[in-house]
Amino acid sequence: MPTATGIIAEIQAKVDLLAYVSQYVTLRKRGREYTGLCPFHAEKTPSFSLNAEKQVWHCYGCDAGGDLISFVKRYENVEFPDALRMLAARAGVALQESSDLRRRRSEREAIYEANAVAKAFFSDALSKSAEAQAYVARRGLAEATCERFGLGFAPDSWDGLTSALARAKVDLPTAARAGLISRRQNEEGYIDFFRRRLMFPIFNLTGEVIAFGGRALGDAEPKYLNTKNTPVFTKGQHVYGLAVARKAAAAQEALIVVEGYMDCLALHQAGFGNVVATSGTAFTPEQARELRRVANNVYLCFDGDAAGQAATTRNVDMLVEEGLHIEVVTLPGGRDPDDLVREGGPEAFATLLAASRSWTDFKIDAAIQRIERRFASKSDVARQAMAVIARVHDPIEKDQYIKAMARKLDVDEASLRSLRPALVATQNERNGGPQHRRAPAPPRRGLSFERELIQLILARPALLDEAMERVATEDFEDEELGRTYDVLHNARSTIAQGVSPVSVLSDAPNVADLTRLALSSPPLDAQEEAQRFERILERFDRRRMQRRLYHVDAEMNRLFTEGKSVPELLRDEYNSLSVTLRGAAPDKREGKH
User: pLDDT for 562-583, tens place per residue?
Assistant: First the structure.
């Protein structure tokens, strides 16, 4: 994407990395850096680190790292052009793109545009449909709630949306790839994908509509019809309502997760602003990570029927493995949150929320219920319960669970404690429990003077020009660092305009190592920094002379061996290098060495 270097520098100057990342990661200041739980992998101990002064971030757990643009690319799963557009919009910076590039916008952006047109069409249709308005009123949804979540209506028409998209100059094949319309069978042209349905836009965290869910107003099947997988939407990777609930969830440090769209809207309307919905009962690790980006504490509130409770049991292990603290809200049998708040008001749901149980209590109680239904032996239940308890890290809490379990099962406490961790783990595997293991981070490399130079340049780009005057790419013995230095050399003008060196290196295979290197740079005053820089350059000078001395010595030895005379200039260079490197050295005379 041909974008002026100054534009990138302006974006980086206007969009602060700390402010941006703090929208998605809860960060706490620790020394010179900010730490939090990494949004890119499951963890319970913070390993994500951000340096606001250097404008770089790194995760010591999964070894990801980079600058502002790198974070946006990874978090939003977009390429560089889209990441830059998102940041430019936030910074109020106009991107200087060619007219041809503007005509050939990325497929993702074209789909966002098509979805925006569809959302406006559905919203207008809702305001004009007596049937849809009656349904919304019957479900108790206020106009403000509908507007906040962007509700709409897909009319019972074969081509209403198709025509609206065409009028808006939206490319119809792109709209088809967005899942909004479908090709007619055995005919040319397109027809609407959604018809006679209440429409629920699904937003990503940056506010773009990425998909729709449609609820049938009549008896049509399926009751809920969702957008199929598209270049901007993959089923099972997003959570409904998260963009709306994000602020309230961050303030309360907790999310409430329900099953359906209507439950989510009903609870928001009742004053529970931190509610999201899964669009089904099958939770995925990707959805769990979406939640963890906003809050670590989750109230899991699936319907009180057998299917809902079975879904809760299935999901708990995975959510815990993804680093979330889970509380289970038990609803009365056959009831859902929408029923509760419409009949009993906000207080009815608040009471259930206050009575929530920890995931360990829920799992243990579920195991005991199997004894009562005679589907499991007391021994099997004890082993399953101990497998759950084994994952509780706090020793006092774990001790209390074992005592409670012994009382509930009416077994000897010592017998429960005798179960070995290995036996518990084996039982957990036999029961199909998650066995996720984090891959170990690469070992940290020592700080050679070559790495010191790169580190100093990353921290102080103004030193690059002086370094280039005295150190060449071929002076590096570490080939990877040499390639890094060469990239920096070729990007001198770009860096001089204010673009971060980490941005320049964002596509380098060793960018994580370089980011970690930049973060570990110690704070130095101007004098200390100058002394360190000069010392590093002197190390390069000295090694360069050592290499030259080695080659001169080898050449002189070759000449001696062949019985040839050694040129005076070569002898003088040898003596000069020897004196410089080691002090006075014996003069190499012709025929002697």
Answer: 888 888 898 888 888 888 887 5
How many CA atoms within 13 Å lie on the side-chain side of 416? Answer: 26
5-103 CATH choice from 3.90.580.10, 3.30.450.40, 3.90.550.10, 3.40.50.300: 3.90.580.10
> What tokens appear for 256 in the block?
């409430």
The Cβ of residue 374 has, within 10 Å, a number of other Cβ atoms equal to 7
DSSP state for residue 46 in the 8-state scheme: -
**Residue 434: what residue type?**
P
Rounded-to-10 torsion of CA 216, 218, 222, 227:
-20
Q: Give me the residue label for tokens 């929408």.
A: 338
Between residues 356 and 319, the one the model is more confident about: 356
Widest Cα–Cα separation across the chain: 109
Structure token pair of residue 152:
């709409």
**Which residues pair with residue 49 across a beta bridge?**
35, 58
C-alpha span between 563 and 561 (Å, rounded): 5
Nearest Cα neighbor of 238 from 180, 279, 273 is: 279
Rounded to whole angstroms, how far apart are CA atoms 139 and 132?
11
CATH for 105-235 (3.90.980.10, 3.30.230.10, 3.40.50.720, 3.30.70.20): 3.90.980.10
* Cα gap 457→438, rounded to integer Å: 32
Q: pLDDT confidence of 427, banded at 50, 70, 90?
A: very low
Q: Which residues does 341 contact at the CB level (< 8 Å), separation at least 6?
A: 266, 267, 269, 270, 348, 349
Task: Give the tens place of pLDDT for each residue, 286-305.
Answer: 888 888 877 889 999 987 66
